[in-house]
Specification:
CATH architecture of the largest domain: 3-Layer(aba) Sandwich
CATH topology of the largest domain: Rossmann fold
Largest sheet: 7 strands, mixed
CATH superfamily of the largest domain: Response regulator
Oligomer: single chain
């Protein structure tokens, strides 16, 4: 019996050894993983005025950027990476914009789409240069907004808008006597006016009254309007934002000023200003790369997607939303060409993106075949639109 127990014990040990050897030779099943998790996440920061007097533009940028990010992620991301957008409010204030930038840096921002308005962007682009952070602004038009070699824009610059506006007015024979109302404390407004004045003189246009206002005095424009009326202006050029433009149009009607009105991209959104009688905007003309009623396929597809995403709310469906939307797709094109990876630092990504920006081209909502020069400026054609029956319509 003792011998039998010994034999059984030996057989049991042998069986256990065979099991161990079998287990050692067996491959473990691969753990399932999501492709997006393998590629990681690309963190994109957005800075702009989500509250305050310029909130129309900031929120438009936010919605345009978020829509593009959702589409990009649904289509497989950028090099497999999912895009995460973090939006910070600067209330159109340079100091708050700097604070927002630092908040995004702490979050791990790798690319900045912003800032929305020019004066804050001038402050933030200096930090981007210092940190070697890639910046693509959808709508900051001041020349100084992209002074850093790491900064680009998708909108027209102030000089381009001022020159193009004067050329358009002259070439179309819209007027010869021009009045101007501009914000002398705003980089966007004063920058456009300076170039407009130079080009207007070169084109034989006479500026009969150039009236400035300041940030603390932009509610009552009666003095400026009276001077323009007395000077016999046939057209009033408004290189300003929509909120102030709505006030000027309302007060011009009360003052009995019979003149045409012409503006730049800042006027896009005047139909959305709260409590504004939009009939007063009839006939207002502006240069903008986007009009929601345009018949081209890119615009129609964008408008359809935007309305579907935001419950048919058109409040922020303006040029700034289209600019931001194009920004995300420009980032996608550049990042794919440069083979950006999620584990790269912001500085490493910037070093790769800056040179390829001069090599890419995108067919965006705000222009077909958009390219960039080495100084960060986009190449695309401006479009003239006129407000008729409460909508923007393309002009020849």
């Amino acid at each position: 019996m003792k011998h039998l127990r010994k034999v059984l014990a030996l057989l049991l040990v042998a069986a256990l050894c065979l099991c161990c050897f079998a287990a050692c030779g067996e491959k473990k099943p691969t753990e399932p993983t999501e492709p997006a998790d393998e590629a990681g996440t690309l963190k994109i920061g957005v800075i702009g005025p989500m509250t305050g007097g310029a909130a129309l533009y900031g929120n438009a940028v936010k919605y345009g950027a978020q829509l593009a990010a959702k589409e990009i992620n649904a289509a497989g991301g950028i090099n497999g990476m999912q895009v995460e957008v973090n939006v910070q409010d600067d209330t159109h204030d340079a100091e708050k914009s700097v604070n927002a930038y630092n908040t995004l840096k702490d979050w791990g921002m790798q690319i900045l789409v912003g800032t929305v308005t020019s004066t804050p962007c001038i402050a933030v682009q200096a930090l981007c240069e210092q940190d070697n952070m890639f910046l693509l602004t959808p709508s900051a038009t001041a020349v100084e907004s992209i002074a850093s070699p790491t900064a680009f824009r998708i909108c027209f610059s102030d000089p381009n808008q001022g020159i193009a506006s004067a050329d358009y007015i002259a070439s179309k024979g819209l007027a010869t006597k021009i009045g101007v109302i501009y914000n002398s404390q705003d980089a966007y407004s004063s920058g456009i006016y300076a170039k407009f004045a130079d080009e207007a003189a070169a084109k034989g246009l006479e500026i009969v009254a150039a009236e400035a206002f300041t940030e603390d005095a932009k509610q009552d424009f009666s003095v400026q309007l009276q001077k323009i009326k007395s000077a016999g202006a046939e057209l009033v050029f408004l290189p300003i934002y929509a909120t102030e433009a709505a006030l000027i149009l309302s007060q011009a009607a009360s003052a009995g000023l019979d003149a045409k009105f012409f503006g730049c991209d800042g006027l896009d959104g005047v139909l959305n200003v709260e409590n504004f009688d939009t009939t007063l905007a009839e006939g207002v003309m502006l240069l903008t790369p986007f009009a929601k009623d345009a018949s081209d396929e890119a615009t129609q597809n964008f408008v359809k997607a935007y309305l579907a995403e935001y419950n048919n709310d058109e409040t922020y469906l303006i040029q700034f939303a289209a600019d931001a939307y194009d920004c995300l797709y420009a980032v996608k094109a550049a990042a794919e060409k440069a083979d950006i990876k999620a584990d790269m630092s912001a500085s490493e990504i910037c070093d790769l993106l800056v040179p390829v920006m001069a090599e890419i081209s995108i067919d965006g909502v705000t222009g077909a075949g958009i390219t960039w020069s080495a100084d960060g400026e986009p190449n695309k054609e401006p479009k003239g639109v006129i407000i008729e029956d409460g909508a923007y319509k393309a002009m020849d």
